[in-house]
Amino acid sequence: MTDINKPSLLEPESRGGDNAGRGFDFQDFYLVSQIPCWLEWDGFISFLREGISDIEIKLFSPKFGERIEMVEVKNHRLTPSVFWAEIDRFYESDQGSPNTFGWFRLVAPDISDDIASLQHSLRRLSSPYDFYPSESGVTENSFADFVTQCKRANKPKEYALFLFHRVLIDPGYSSLQEHGEALFRQNFGECLPEYRQVPYSSVSDIYYKLLNLTAPRNTPITRKSIEEVIRACIPSDRQIPLAFTRLHTSIKQDDARKKEIVLEFVDFFGGHNRSYPSTEEWNARVVGQLNITKDFILKYRSNRLIRLTGNRKLSTAFAIGNIFSATSGFTVMMQHREGSWWQTNDHSKTELDVSLNVEFPQTQGDDLIISIGIPNDIRQAVESFVRTSWGKHVPLLNISCSFSIQNAQQANSIVAQTKKAILQSLSETNASYIHLFCAVPSFVALLLGHRLNATTTIQCYEFTGPNNYVQTCRLHT
């Protein structure tokens, strides 16, 4: 490799759109046809035309923050010489500006047979890639064959890795200039199903308004401005609520291209050994990811409604509720069972005959232990752990409930009573630090964090075995 050509907005490759007079119709039609696909990504922030490349899409993920997908759009068949020149450009941009770009996409109406063969190899590698162990002979041999294929084009192994992990080859737009609106309509219905009932004429109006909106070069176009154009074109009787933000808590190495905002908590699920990182790790990674996600939503999304899916420990559920709290204006809807959603603002007007067994602390102290068990009382296990670990008596508030929660209204009623008991216990004990032990449904943990504000520092614990717990995240409410 020669010296890396560091990307700049003033280099000739970046100024092609200012100087060229042809080819932009194809790029215009491609760009607008893909807007519904970008809106489907909860982390989509904005895009820019004719910056470093033809199109740059800014995306958010909790793991990496804000990163850019670089897109080069060709209005002609992709030959090996053109293809590898663009891959050179992608690779140099990534090397010259590390951690700026997450993905690279090469768009064309058609690709030559040589490039089609390379694309086929990439698909053959990526589709079953996670099926085989990473150290297996199948995986190693397959990738070695792909490296050999790249070497035939005089490209090093690093290029093979770069192509496999970072580059998307996206052909098949040969009729785009004649059928750009048709592709937009197709993507609009498939990617944004909430708009499927929008009248045909309104979709056409949206398409041409977006062509006008996206015409300026070197000007960021935000998600909010796109959504405003869409909603302005829809009749008032067909309007729908603003889209929620989807969060997915993952306990495995999920596909990085998942359209929800993925919070990767694989290290914080315990596994079969129920082994957990330190409190410092919980706060840096779990609470840290939640905080930057909250900042993203407040800055770039149009409302504060969150739809939560995935798997998580109770400490994580409590932390999510704490970060996306009621006092911050958030509402969280959690998938309870398949097809069933419970919301944090689904309050009951009565107590719904929910009766808690509350045992208040009998002494004072700086620390207050809170044990909450639903439907099983965990007081004995918590007291045994505290006695063995601390060797001293600590004021304890024990809350239990002997029946299973049937709906969000009951959960809200239980949490309202629990919060009242906690505030009373803090007042009577003069405690300034809470140790929280829970064995409750996940939604109750989420809701408790969501509603338990203006109290004090809370240290959460996870169960690891009979009469044994470990510290997890520490939150300030």
Which characteristics define this entry?
alpha/beta, Rossmann fold, 3 domains, 14 helices, 40% helix
Give the overall shape, derived from the CA principal axes: globular
Strand content: 15-25%
Rg value = 27 Å
For the sheet with most strands, the description reads: 6 strands, mixed
Secondary structure class reads alpha/beta
Number of contiguous helices: 14
Count all strands and give the number: 17
- Uncertain parts: 14-24
Largest sheet strand order: 5-4-3-2-1-6
The pLDDT mean sits at 88
Helix content: 40-55%
What's the structural domain tally?
3
- From the N-terminal CA to the C-terminal CA, the straight-line distance is 53 Å
Q: What does it look like?
A:
By secondary structure, this protein is an alpha/beta fold. It has three domains: 14-111 and 171-238, no CATH class; 245-343, no CATH class; 357-476, Rossmann fold, CATH 3.40.50. The chain has 14 helices and 17 strands. It has a six-stranded mixed beta sheet with strand order 5-4-3-2-1-6, with helices on both faces. β15, α14 and β16 (457-465) form a beta-alpha-beta unit. α4 packs antiparallel against α5.
